[in-house]
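Minutes, project huddle
Topic: does the predicted pose make sense with (2S,3S)-3-hydroxy-2-methylbutanoyl-COA bound?
PN asked that the exact inputs be recorded in the minutes so nobody has to dig through chat later. Recorded below.
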Amino acid sequence: MTMIDSSPSQNSGAAGEPSAVRLETDGDLAFIVIDNPPVNASSVAVRSGLLDAIEGMSADPNIKAGIIIGAGSTFVAGSDIKEFGRALPPPELPTVLAAIEACPKPIAAAIHGAALGGGLELALACDARIALADAIVGLPEVTLGMIPGAGGTQRLPRLTGIAKALDLVTSGRRIGAREAAKLGIIDHVVEGTSLRDGAAEFVRALSGKRVVAELSVPYEPEETIAAAEQNALKSGRGREAVAEAVKAVKNAAVLPVREALAEERATFQRLRNSEEAAALRYNFFAERQAGKLDGSAKARAVKTVGVVGAGTMGAGIAAVCAAASLDVILVDASAASLEAGKGRVTAALTDLHRVGKLKAASAEEAAGHVAYANDIAALAGVDLIIEAVFEDMQVKTGVLQRLATTVRADAVIATNTSYLDLDQLAEATNRPQDVIGLHFFAPVHRMRLLEVVRGAKSDPAALATGVWLAKTIGKLPIIAGVCEGFIGNRIYAKYRAQCEFMLEEGALPRELDTAMEDLGFSMGPFAVSDLSGLDIAWAMRKRKAATRDPRERYVGIADQICEMGRLGRKTGAGWYDYSAGSGRGAVDPVVTELVQAESRKQGRPQKAFAKAEMQGRVLGTILNEAALLLAEGIARSAAEIDLVLVNGFGFSKFRGGPIFQASRKTPAEVDAMVEAAAQATGFGFRRGDVASLIAGVGN
Ligand code: T1G
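Predicted holo structure (tokens), as shared on screen:
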């Protein structure tokens, strides 16, 4: 094996950019090794290095063929997403792919780990694709608000047919090497030898070039393509990237390939610069930072999990742990609750199986990971305990104290409290270092967000264990400090209060809900309250009434609605009337009258709210509270606050988050929104440093 460093030459991109590609020859074969950690993203250095290497092997008379392979854990995870917020430095990927196709010698791609986006497009431009059995391939560009921009929409259908290409490109779905081989994407799955050797053997047997772009698209009946197109557009729910992806893939059957490639590239460039793509990139990188902990603390080993409380939350937590093949013991003192809990666990696992989110082959198999007990003593040997009993300080303290003396000294004790003071609960256990918060969102098996709460005395290893669990059960861990409502509920309470202020000033629930849905929330606050039940927040308001400062602005409309027995969907009425069925609630004149009567009683000036004003007041409120959370160290970054609102409170990820949205506005517009929120709130409004919060978001 001879190594030739394709050091920078005329092809190399930005001056001084280290080449991330090396050329190694092995007899008559050239290995073109991409080495750009962590995921060999095809940055400008990789693209220039590839051009140099192809030139090198083409010119070497001893070389008969080339194999592109990735160093480290993966092939190429795609184009470098970090480059997408600005003009792409040359050479661009299509130039590299054209060089591969123009090279007189066959070049194959040897795939391990992931070949995604531009990584798969690179492989599709090669004359053959060889992969390890556990490799994955896919074109996930639509999940980033774009379409493939380097030939994926033209070369893929020439191997799979239009219908399958429509499915893969519009869903962004990743598939394994075996399925890809069945579809004609992968030519050879390497078994029982190394990828290098398997690839070398396969390539040496190649008869010559096979340029995919020159292949014709396999024939398929029109109805097959039409059905695939319908499915794609239906699941795309009107998203532009999906509609453009459908158009581009269908072009493969009707346009000359070079023309179709040019159209694809133009669409890619346009979408790459779209607001939706910027928002999704912002989320992509924010998710990569989520759960990263400073320092070297290692998570404690967890094989068994104990869950106390078989109610809606406890049973959901047990189910998601079992779905990840963790052994779980679900405890509830009441036999009836435990029996009901079993039913909830089974229902959640069945639903997870239906959506393909189970490690096990079946819900029954996953349910086998859950054992049931009536006594906390059954948890003496478990590694991690999650307490999910009734949200009451006394009840939770009692359970946590019992747990603290029952479970192993190195076990981690987590509480699923939403609002109670975690530090007070932890102190009561006499081992606060082992206590963290794991704040799940309902329904647990569906909601991705998990606030991992760091107590004042939580041991870093305990916190790391919480993050480990979150990732293991497929949740998005967001580290939060201790305050009432942590990150999400604290912001949401202010958001809802601001909306109720506007009720007193002339707005009505439906207007506000519609304005908030237009802002980016999947459902407005009044519809959400009806869904989750008005009684929880009512109980909390009643608990707080004694300590509430009378100077604070308080809207009593929600209390009056509850006093009428209207607790939401579960009682057939709340802010809206559901007597006509389960759909979107109907505006109820009773509530309209109640709101207007209360507004008159409060003597607040009434006005017709423009949508933008309602949205401005709410954004101003959210931004201000987010700025306070950041300043207090409860939240770690603006991006993580946006992730909380996107993954826990239904704000559209295609909009990035409320703070991301605000970063697209001028400082003057933002100031005006915060000022309007401050004026409306009056006493108790603490002003946060919103400018610092927004600085650096989404750029
Ligand atoms: N560009 C830049 N950085 C990337 C990257 C990419 N494509 N993929 C990952 N990273 C970084 C990530 O930010 C993190 O950095 C580190 O790598 C590890 O990632 C023209 C338009 C490959 C399955 O959408 O799905 O090609 O935080 O924590 O869990 O048509 O990363 O350590 O600093 O996720 O092992 C299409 C995206 C691009 C694939 C590995 N490609 N990546 O998962 O590690 S668009 C994608 C992934 C495109 C062309 C178009 C995953 C992974 P840091 P990680 P992981």
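Observations noted during the meeting:
- The chain has a mean pLDDT of 95.
- The pocket of (2S,3S)-3-hydroxy-2-methylbutanoyl-COA is lined by residues 38-39, 41, 77-82, 93, 114, 116-118, 121, 140-141, 144, 146, 148-150, 152, 285, 288 (CB under 6 Å).
No decisions taken; revisit at the next huddle.
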